[in-house]
Each structure stands twice: as structure tokens, then as C-alpha cells.
Amino acid sequence: MRSKKISISVFQIFITLLIVIGITIAVMIIKKNANFGNALISKKLGSFTGNGTVETPYKIETIEDLVNLSKDVNNGKTYSNQYFELTNKLDFQEDSSYSNANGKYGDFNRDGKVESIKVELTTGKGFPTIGNSEDKPFEGIFKGNDNTINNLLINVNSEYEYAFVGLFGNNKGKILNIKLSGKISVEDNLENKEIHLGMLNARNQGLIQACNVEGEIYAISNGENMTVEVAGIAAENMGKIVDSASKVNIIANQTKAGIVAKNVVSPDIENSGEIINCTNEGNIKETTGSNYYTAGVIAENQQGNITSCNNNGRIEGRKAGGIAGISTGYIVACQNTGSISNVKEDSNDAETVGGIVGVLDTATVENCKNTGDISGINDIGGIAGENKGTISQSRNEGSVSKISSTIGKTINIGGLVGKNTPTSRLTNSKNYGKVTSETDTIVNLGGICGTIYNDSIVELCESNGVLYGSAKIINPNEDVSIRCASCISNNGGNAETADFGELNIGIIYGKFEEK
Prior knowledge:
It contains three helices and 55 strands. By secondary structure, it is mostly beta strands. It folds into two domains: about 35-280, no CATH class; about 295-515, Pectate Lyase C-like. The protein has a 31-stranded parallel beta sheet that branches. Helix 2 (about 65-75) links the parallel strand 1 (about 60) and strand 2. The protein is elongated and about 75 Å long. It starts with a helix and ends with a strand.
């Protein structure tokens, strides 16, 4: 009897071993398949935790969840009025940010081969933008909860299919409380393409609030029929952007700015074209002069409102401004502390630079302040390079000067405005910065304005800055009441003789022109 019991026990052990071996083999097969397909991974690509309500939002827990959102929106699912919540800090370079960093889900970087998801998103074309075209918008509410998404990578080359580039592309929803860092580049010599490129968002038609971005954007392209808009927050804004900041360093030779490249008012969108309490800390420059605008906050402001915004970065371009490159809308209670300059190259008489705005075009600057140093070649001003609108209650404390070792044709340089054109108005404003120029062909230099034209108004302004210029022909101007009204100068200037050139120098304005 004892031997019979022993034989049964051995048999049971044998059967148990077979079962264990079978289970082990099955698990190995499943694990292997999980690396090569969507259906067998531990967290299925194509699903979210949550149900999309405000009480139980869809959770973005991993990089796979971001990719899932991108795939859905780019396939036409807008997620209108549905909620998303970023629950973790994510890093495209960290395995821990993935559900399975070695999983293979598709050719996301579009290089013709399928590699691990981490490799796909950190090489080649990189991350697929969420809402990559005009008819594929994101319309949900994305809450970042102040969590960070790091090391976003997108590379645009001649084979890139889409016009919208960024973490989000076409946003018609709400993007809230995201911190984002990354690197985006545009290949040289692209042709026949229109690209809207923003580190956070390509085109905003909804709301962006309390978001922060940092990183690098490089977009030098010399191809024909090429249009690129580049910005840290949104390339193009038709909606509203509030309480957001950029530390993105940008090198580009087309329209570019720290917050928004182009701000456009749409009659169909509530609070359209509103930029409020936003700050740029990034340096923005072009390597050679272009005919596009460069600015700390908005390159082209088309009738939008810019309120309580700041620029602290260095801005360099042929047409440059601390807050806006060109504006046909309101700029109110804004401040620039960064140095603003034209590109150091000989003039084509198209350069303009201002501490607040390069060109103020039939619009208003009110209660603004510049403390950054301003240097340029053609139209140079502490507040505006060229004023075609109204400037009031503004103040310049930065130095205003012509860039050394460059040759221009006509230089208009003023403590507040370089050129005050017909029908423009400059009132109740003060300059405390020194205003200087090297010898050049014609220099019009003034404590308040370089040149004023007939039908323009300069009134109730005060000059406290030291003036300096040099030329072979010197024409001093001490008018404070004939071509301007109730203006004051509390400081003088110095003009020295030189071998060539003409200098029109005045305590309020350098030269009066009829036009």
C-alpha cells in the first residue's frame, strides 16, 4: 500500500510540472506578441482610464496615452467638451514614462520602419501632432495639472505632410496648466509649404491658460513659396491666451515671436485675439535680415488686444519690437526689459525697431514701459520705430542708438519714436534714455522723435535723455512749441563735426517733414 501512494504522488508531481511548463510557455508567447502588436500589450493603445467627464476625466498616464490621443484626433475624433487630465510627469526620453518603452505600435516617425515606441518618438520626425490639419481639431479640455511633458521632438522635412506642428495642432478646446519642454526644427530649402509651428500649439481657436514652455526652435528655410509662422506658445492665435510664459529660444528667418507669431481677430470666436498677462524669456533672432516681423510677444498683431504682457528676452530682426513687431490693435500696460536690435547688416531702408513695437499701424499703445537697450539702422525708437497710431502715457528708460559699423540712407532715431507719421499722435510720454548715433548719410535725431510729419501730433512729452550725434553738416533744433505742444527738455545734447553726413538734432525732434 505504501508503494502505491508513492507512485500516485510522483504522477501528480509530473502532471503539475507539465502544467507549469505549459503556463510558462504561454506567458512567453504572449509577452513576445505584446512587443509587436497592439492587442496584447499590458495597457492597450487605444483606450484611456476614465470616461471623459469633469468628475472622471480621461487620464493621460503614459506616453502611449498621448499617442492614443493624437491618433484619435488625427482620425477625426474631436473629443468635443470631453475632459482629459495629465496625471504624471512624462519624459519622452525616460522608459518609466511609457507603459512599454520597447513596444512596437507603428511608424510614428515616418522613416519607413517600425521600431520601439521610444525610438519612434525620439528620432526622425518625432511626435505626431495632436490635431494635425484644418479639419482635424482638438475640441476637448486638457488639464495638465502643472505636470511636465519633457523632451518633445518634432523635425519637419520635405516629406512632412501637415501644416500644423506642435504638441497640439488645431486647438478649438481648452489647454490648461501644461509645462512643456522640447525641440522642433525645420529643414532648410523646403518649398511650396505653409507651416504653423508652435511648441505648445500650432493654431489656437480656443483657450490656452497657465501654460509654460521652454526649449529650442530652429526654422531657417530659404525655399520658394515657403511660409512659416513660429512661436513658443502658438504660431497663430484666434482665441485667447492667458497667464502663460515661454522660455523657448528661436532662430528663424520668417514670422516669429515668443508667445504668438500671428494674432488674428475672428468675428466668429468669443474673446478672439486676446493675449493677457503673458511673458517671454526666450531669445529670438534671425541670422540674416528678412522682411518678416520678430517680437518678444506677438510678431503680427492684427486688431487683437495685448494686455499686461512682458518681454525679457533678447530680440533681433530686421523688423523687431519688444512686445509686437507690427500692431493694428491695442497694446496696454506692457513692459520690455530685453535688448531689441536690428540685424547687423547694411540698411535697405526697411529696418525698424522699437522697445514696445516696431511699427504701430493705426492702433494704440498705452501705459507701456521700456527699459531695454534699443539699437537699429533705419527707424529706431524707445517705444516705437514707426508710429502711425496713438502712443500715450508711456515711458522709455533704455538707451536708443544706431548700430555701429553699418551704413544706412536715412536714420530716424528718437527717445520714444523714430518716425512719427502723418495723422499719428504721441502724448503724455517721457524719455529718460540717452539717444545716440554714429555718423551716417542723413541722421534725424531727437529726444522724443527723430522725425515728425505734418498733421502728426506731439504734445505734453518730456525728454530727459542725453543726445549725441556727429556729421559734417549739423542742423540744431530747439523747438518745443511750434511743431509740438507743451513739450519739455530737461537735458541737452552734444553734436560733433565729422568728415561726412548730415545731422538734424533736436531736444524734442530732429526734423520736421511735410508729406
